[in-house]
Amino acid sequence: MTANLRDLKILSTARVTGNGLLLRPWDPDSGADVEAWLRGNTDPEFRRWNTPITPVTDRAAAEDSLRVRTARALEGSAASFVIEDAGSGTPLGHIGINDIRPFMATARVGYWVLPEARGHGVATRALGLVADWGFGELGLHRMELDHAVGHEVSCRVAERCGFRYEGTMRGAVFQAGRKDAWRDAHLHARLATDPAPKPHPKR
C-alpha cells in the first residue's frame, strides 16, 4: 500500500545531483560497481561498525548482493545509490534508503564511504542530498538512521544533516563480526517538518 507516498517506481532509476556529487543506482552488471561494492563491504572500518546478515566476501557475493538491492528497488522497498564525484565519476561510497514503509511514509538510511574518500565531507553531503530527495520526491514524513554506540563520525554526520539524536537502543545491532552478541545503537531521525540544517559546502 502506498497511500502516503508518491510513485515508488522511481527508486530503480532515480539520479540525484548536488553538493559536487551524483547519486545513481548500483549496477550489478558493471564490473566497476561490483568492485567498489566489494571494497566497501570488506573494508576493516566498515566491518568494525557493521555486521551484515549476509557478508560480502568475494566478487560473486558482491554481484549477488547488488542484484538483491536492484530487486528491492523494483519492488519499491528500498533504493541503493553509488555516491560518485559529479565531475570525475569516481565512486566514493554508498547511501541507501531502506525499509520503506509506505503507509507510514517512513524509511531508514544507511551509508558508508570508501577509505580514499574519507575526510572530505562525502557522507554529510550525500546524506543531505538523499534526505532532501526523500522528503521532496518520495514524500517521506520521517527518515531514521542508527549507528553503533561509539561511532562518533556517523553521529556527527547525522547531526550536521538535521537527524536529531532520539535515544539509545539497547542491544539493537550485532557486535563486530558476530551474530551471537549485540551492542547498543544510537537512533537519529529527521522529519519533513524539521527546519532545514545549514548547508555544508564541498570540502
From TrEMBL:
Q: Which domain of life is it from?
A: Bacteria
One GO cellular component assignment for this chain's record is: cytoplasm
Q: Which Pfam families match?
A: Acetyltransf_3
What range(s) does the N-acetyltransferase domain occupy?
Answer: 21-184
Q: Name one GO molecular function term.
A: protein N-terminal-serine acetyltransferase activity
Protein name from the UniProt record: Acetyltransferase
**Organism, per UniProt?**
Streptomyces naganishii JCM 4654
What's the source species' lineage? Bacteria, Bacillati, Actinomycetota, Actinomycetes, Kitasatosporales
